[in-house]
Write a structure and sequence with these properties.
The chain is mainly α and 273 residues long. It is built from eleven helices and four strands; from the N terminus they run ααβααααββαβαααα.
Length: 273
Amino acid sequence: MTTPKTNADDAERDDVSNMADDDVESERDEPVLGAIDTETGARGAVYALAARAFGEPDPELYGALADGSFDEEFATFVDHTGLAVDSPDLTVDDDRNTLAARYNDLFVVGYSEVIDGTDGTIDNQGPPVSLYESAYRSAVSWNDVNLDLARAYEYFGCEIDQEERRHHDHVRLELEFAGYLCRLAAADAVAGGADVDRARLDFHDRHLTILVTGLHDALAEEPGTSIYGRLTAFLDDFTEADVDDLDARLDVGAGRAATASSSDNAKNGGEGR
């Protein structure tokens, strides 16, 4: 997700969005204010880096994982979020080919099984773990999930990079958008910040929490998940803490119960809040 640089980006690090936000472009004008909410800005950096980690391990990403620089940067931002969540271990011992094989086996490669050799019936299965929210929304149509996301992205001036050919409910896009909303709220800390915080909470309830929970549960059933299992377990705790903090800021008072109710509602065919 390529987004305009906010004041929060300046307060944290100019190139965080360049490293992580490469799928969505935004033309939204942003406020120029002196006050920066650095904790919310740090949360935005965490979401953006998490999105980068869910990309295929290209040489640049693998190098940062292997030499520990990605882990160090991630932990630094987590420490500045104001949330009582421990940073995960995001270092790897695998060589790049092995890590790429893990990624493909978990998220990319499906399989086909011949069910009936007499008539050629074949059971086609997708990869063991889906990176798309709609896979965890059996009672809600793919179209409804993606249209709702498309409206949210459009409202905040974001566009999907068509060259990537990802649907709106891909985990990288949702994490990148969550990071952008954080940086927008951080830069808008004086005027209207609560409005962006409400948008952040709504996005958690309607989409991101459901996706992260689904990913966490799916990966927990797979062997050899490496950094992906550790990262998703962290995100499950991190999004919960972020939601609870947003509830407190906005005096909602529902905490995780609200998102749990939203998730249950979604599984029964609803759309959350």
